């Protein structure tokens, strides 16, 4: 048990490339779906309970000792568009770089060797949590929080949204985050015995559609 | 300590993920990485283009661009046909160019490594920052040396103001000197201020778009490369 | 906020008000290459009609014999196309999920099994979630390595001018032992975040067209934006979607639209633009 490591892992300044990804917020802003703090909160809540839940489940299952390569396949099966698979693997590769520097581990080395172009980011994060001595619940929290803090930070830059309002949005999502992290951790704990069917697979059609729209933009600020 | 030593054997040191490591995984010496930073519109991309033209016949080169609008600089370089497309990579920065070159260099490191894998072996990789303010500098984890580009049109007080870019860059380029008479800039004053801020660190006054304008910059790059290839790994 | 139940009702505790029914279809080729239907077993609300003449492909239409699923019902369909068989399944009308008398949830499980060289087309009409309904649906497809699947799934949240019921749905596609696609959708009262700009953006019809087959193994991995998502006719108000390759020999179209009609338009565009 090493809770301080969670603060390192979940720090927005952890150098794993997240700052260049908006989690679909850049596309949602362009489409007029995010215009202010209230619409940012709705977007974040929707993303959290779909993509965030899936990612948190994968991370928790990895942290619980699930086979990272099998979970990487499970992540592919839960990510039906290439733009999001590519973004997840790019972020996974960047997370791997930072994680191996912070918490050297044979398990991280093995995954890096098996997926040189990057495994899905939640899987890498789950393994990093494991290497740092963190629990599956910690891993679920880190992933779930990042899942909404990324879009919130991006919208501060994209809309010049008041950063206090954006932070208040994240604070209002705390109850959702608590419940979701607990659910994801519970599923993750059952994964080694019960396999991928136990893991959440919640989908968000608009995130999938707009991710591919965004990837086709000739000019953009964020990588995803 | 005994324990540390054992851990070192189990988990070999992981310093190999940044510019700190001068070798590739196979033990050969990796490409020299030079960063180019500076405010918007001072001529970073023009310097990169001119350097590529000056050096591409003698060196194996590649470029990573970081721009707020990611593809623009890369497309400029492609249009100018200074390098084949596969030797240019663009990195998105999420509207924060200085973050991508200093605080979280992971995307740039990935781009640098991908270039070495895809078109290597390379002698030199130029990493161009998106235009930013005077405080933006490159992480030593990303580049081996950095060039800061300012121009005379930005005012002759910039060297006096200093800032990490002006004071610590390995080379300061004061670009567009041809404009000095039109913008009322005192080049000798700029040179004195730069000397005061930078001590022995070199400064080049030039216009990189003019014939031979990039020659002193290219000469400096060749010197860095000579140091790089001869210094012990 | 109403709290959604987080687990589906057990199949064992049959509600007093509920109906339990499983329809079974088995398609098998004979020595002449004609697909026969040795099992065509409608049950409860499912009446099955064989259409057309005997040939390489057997066509079956599901005719809704009564309103279903109602709350408390436990319904299932099992369809198998054995090696080399071709089975084409359609429905005569939309399926409407309705509330039951007790407020219990209904379950509806579709299981499709496709052998080597076989092809199964699963093209039912939309599932409409009436106000007050609560349905847990699963669709599980298992394909042999050279099996082919065409699957269309359409969900409509509420009848005209009506609020939606609650729908939990999971689509799992396993090919040669490996999970190709695993997707859950959850919409309706009490489901957190469902009616947001990240998920539906106000749309009330959601659909997918999934095509799996060995010919997609080497197909060009191209993404196509559909309907209003396409850059040349950017329109966030109408139907929109994306047709994209999965990790494996399959392509999936995902679409959302204000209503069933505009949803079908987008899925038809996807069908016209399948690679190969």
TrEMBL record, chain A:
<dbReference type="InterPro" id="IPR038277">
    <property type="entry name" value="UreF_sf"/>
</dbReference>
<keyword id="KW-0963">Cytoplasm</keyword>
<comment type="subunit">
    <text>UreD, UreF and UreG form a complex that acts as a GTP-hydrolysis-dependent molecular chaperone, activating the urease apoprotein by helping to assemble the nickel containing metallocenter of UreC. The UreE protein probably delivers the nickel.</text>
</comment>
<dbReference type="Pfam" id="PF01730">
    <property type="entry name" value="UreF"/>
</dbReference>
<comment type="function">
    <text>Required for maturation of urease via the functional incorporation of the urease nickel metallocenter.</text>
</comment>
<comment type="similarity">
    <text>Belongs to the UreF family.</text>
</comment>
<protein>
    <recommendedName>
        <fullName>Urease accessory protein UreF</fullName>
    </recommendedName>
</protein>
<keyword id="KW-0143">Chaperone</keyword>
<keyword id="KW-0996">Nickel insertion</keyword>
<dbReference type="InterPro" id="IPR002639">
    <property type="entry name" value="UreF"/>
</dbReference>
UniProtKB/TrEMBL annotation, chain B:
<comment type="similarity">
    <text>Belongs to the SIMIBI class G3E GTPase family. UreG subfamily.</text>
</comment>
<keyword id="KW-0342">GTP-binding</keyword>
<comment type="subunit">
    <text>Homodimer. UreD, UreF and UreG form a complex that acts as a GTP-hydrolysis-dependent molecular chaperone, activating the urease apoprotein by helping to assemble the nickel containing metallocenter of UreC. The UreE protein probably delivers the nickel.</text>
</comment>
<protein>
    <recommendedName>
        <fullName>Urease accessory protein UreG</fullName>
    </recommendedName>
</protein>
<dbReference type="InterPro" id="IPR003495">
    <property type="entry name" value="CobW/HypB/UreG_nucleotide-bd"/>
</dbReference>
<dbReference type="Pfam" id="PF02492">
    <property type="entry name" value="cobW"/>
</dbReference>
<feature type="binding site">
    <location>
        <begin position="38"/>
        <end position="45"/>
    </location>
    <ligand>
        <name>GTP</name>
    </ligand>
</feature>
<keyword id="KW-0996">Nickel insertion</keyword>
<comment type="function">
    <text>Facilitates the functional incorporation of the urease nickel metallocenter. This process requires GTP hydrolysis, probably effectuated by UreG.</text>
</comment>
<keyword id="KW-0547">Nucleotide-binding</keyword>
<keyword id="KW-0143">Chaperone</keyword>
<dbReference type="InterPro" id="IPR027417">
    <property type="entry name" value="P-loop_NTPase"/>
</dbReference>
<keyword id="KW-0963">Cytoplasm</keyword>
<feature type="domain" description="CobW/HypB/UreG nucleotide-binding">
    <location>
        <begin position="34"/>
        <end position="204"/>
    </location>
</feature>
<dbReference type="InterPro" id="IPR004400">
    <property type="entry name" value="UreG"/>
</dbReference>
From TrEMBL, chain C:
<dbReference type="Pfam" id="PF01774">
    <property type="entry name" value="UreD"/>
</dbReference>
<keyword id="KW-0996">Nickel insertion</keyword>
<keyword id="KW-0143">Chaperone</keyword>
<comment type="similarity">
    <text>Belongs to the UreD family.</text>
</comment>
<protein>
    <recommendedName>
        <fullName>Urease accessory protein UreD</fullName>
    </recommendedName>
</protein>
<comment type="subunit">
    <text>UreD, UreF and UreG form a complex that acts as a GTP-hydrolysis-dependent molecular chaperone, activating the urease apoprotein by helping to assemble the nickel containing metallocenter of UreC. The UreE protein probably delivers the nickel.</text>
</comment>
<comment type="function">
    <text>Required for maturation of urease via the functional incorporation of the urease nickel metallocenter.</text>
</comment>
<dbReference type="InterPro" id="IPR002669">
    <property type="entry name" value="UreD"/>
</dbReference>
<keyword id="KW-0963">Cytoplasm</keyword>
């Amino acid at each position: 048990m090493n809770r301080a490591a969670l603060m390192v892992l979940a720090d927005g300044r952890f150098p794993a490339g997240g700052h260049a990804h908006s989690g679909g917020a850049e596309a949602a802003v362009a489409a007029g779906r995010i215009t202010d703090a209230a619409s940012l909160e709705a977007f974040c809540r929707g993303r959290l309970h779909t993509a965030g839940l899936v990612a948190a489940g994968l991370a928790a299952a990895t942290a619980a000792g699930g086979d990272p390569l099998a979970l990487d396949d499970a992540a592919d099966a839960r990510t039906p568009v290439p733009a999001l698979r590519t973004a997840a693997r790019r972020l996974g590769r960047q997370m791997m770089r930072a994680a191996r520097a912070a918490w050297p581990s044979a398990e991280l080395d093995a995954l890096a060797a098996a997926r040189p172009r990057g495994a899905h980011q939640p899987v890498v994060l789950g393994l990093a949590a494991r290497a740092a001595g963190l629990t599956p619940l910690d891993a679920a929290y880190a992933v779930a929080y990042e899942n909404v803090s990324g879009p919130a930070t991006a919208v501060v830059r994209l809309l010049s949204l008041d950063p206090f309002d954006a932070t208040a949005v994240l604070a209002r999502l705390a109850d959702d985050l608590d419940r979701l992290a607990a659910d994801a951790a519970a599923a993750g704990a059952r994964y080694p015995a019960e396999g991928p069917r136990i893991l959440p697979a919640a989908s968000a059609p608009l995130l999938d559609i707009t991710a591919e729209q965004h990837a086709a933009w000739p000019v953009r600020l964020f990588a995803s | 300590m005994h324990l540390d030593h054992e851990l070192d054997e189990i988990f070999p040191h992981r310093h190999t993920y940044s510019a700190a490591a001068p070798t590739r995984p196979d033990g050969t010496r990796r490409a020299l990485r030079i960063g180019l930073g500076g405010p918007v519109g001072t001529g970073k991309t023009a310097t990169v283009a001119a350097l590529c033209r000056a050096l591409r016949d003698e060196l194996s080169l590649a470029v990573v661009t970081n721009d707020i609008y990611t593809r623009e600089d890369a497309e400029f370089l492609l249009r100018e046909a200074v390098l084949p497309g596969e030797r240019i990579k663009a990195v998105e920065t999420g509207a924060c160019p200085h973050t991508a070159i200093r605080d979280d260099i992971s995307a740039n490191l990935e781009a640098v490594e991908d270039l070495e894998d895809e078109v290597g072996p390379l002698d030199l990789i130029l990493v161009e920052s998106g235009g930013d303010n005077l405080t933006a500098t490159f992480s030593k984890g990303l580049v081996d040396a950095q060039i800061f580009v300012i121009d005379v049109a930005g005012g002759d007080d910039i060297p006096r103001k200093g800032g990490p870019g002006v004071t610590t860059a390995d080379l300061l380029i004061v670009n567009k000197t041809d404009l000095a008479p039109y913008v009322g800039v005192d080049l000798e004053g700029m040179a004195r201020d730069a000397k005061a801020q930078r001590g022995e660190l070199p400064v080049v006054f030039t216009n990189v778009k003019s014939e031979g304008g990039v020659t002193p910059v290219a000469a400096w790059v060749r010197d860095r490369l000579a140091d790089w290839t001869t210094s012990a790994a | 906020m109403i709290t959604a139940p987080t687990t589906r009702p057990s199949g064992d505790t049959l509600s007093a008000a509920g109906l339990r029914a499983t329809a079974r279809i088995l398609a098998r080729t004979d020595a002449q290459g004609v697909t026969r239907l040795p099992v065509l077993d409608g049950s409860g609300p499912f009446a099955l009609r064989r259409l057309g003449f005997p040939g390489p492909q057997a066509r079956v239409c599901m005719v809704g014999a009564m309103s279903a699923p109602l709350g408390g019902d436990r319904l299932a369909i099992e369809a198998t196309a054995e090696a080399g068989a071709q089975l084409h399944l359609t429905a005569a009308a939309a399926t409407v999920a309705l509330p039951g008398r007790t407020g219990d949830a209904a379950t509806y499980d579709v299981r499709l099994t496709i052998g080597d060289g076989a092809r199964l087309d699963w093209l039912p009409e939309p599932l409409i979630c009436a106000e007050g309904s609560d349905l847990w649906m699963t669709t599980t497809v298992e394909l042999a390595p050279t099996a082919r699947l065409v699957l269309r799934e359409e969900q409509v949240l509420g009848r005209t001018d009506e609020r939606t019921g609650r729908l939990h749905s999971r689509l799992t596609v396993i090919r040669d032992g490996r999970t190709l696609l695993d997707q859950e959708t959850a919409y309706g009262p009490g489901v957190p975040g469902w009616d947001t700009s990240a998920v539906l953006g106000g749309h009330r019809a959601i659909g997918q067209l999934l095509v799996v087959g060995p010919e997609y193994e080497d197909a060009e991995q191209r993404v196509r934006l559909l309907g209003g998502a396409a850059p040349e006719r950017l329109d966030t108000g109408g139907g929109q979607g994306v047709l994209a390759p999965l990790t494996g020999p399959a392509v999936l179209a995902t679409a959302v639209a204000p209503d069933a009609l505009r949803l079908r338009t987008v899925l038809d565009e996807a069908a016209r633009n399948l690679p190969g």
